[in-house]
Design brief:
3-stranded antiparallel beta sheet; two-stranded antiparallel sheet; 5 strands; binds zinc ion
């Protein structure tokens, strides 16, 4: 089983196998402990999981822009 997790440091979505205990974020190189990391979705196959990530990323892009800039 696969899980879509959120890196607590950079906020990127990444794919992890649920049996893994840790996962290194490919974006910011942080080592994430899976039991302490927020899971946003789970999937049976890697293919399904990557589709989920793509969908979630699109959803994120549609959120209102950040006006702090
Ligand atoms: Zn990260």
């Amino acid at each position: 089983m696969y899980a879509v997790i959120v890196c607590f440091r950079c906020g990127q979505l990444l794919l992890a196998k649920t049996y893994q205990k840790t996962r290194r974020c490919p974006y910011c190189e942080t080592r994430l402990i899976l039991s302490k990391t927020r899971k946003v979705a789970t999937a049976e196959t890697a293919r399904e999981a990557s589709t989920l990530i793509r969908t979630l990323k699109q959803k994120k892009r549609m959120e209102p822009p950040d006006f702090k800039r």
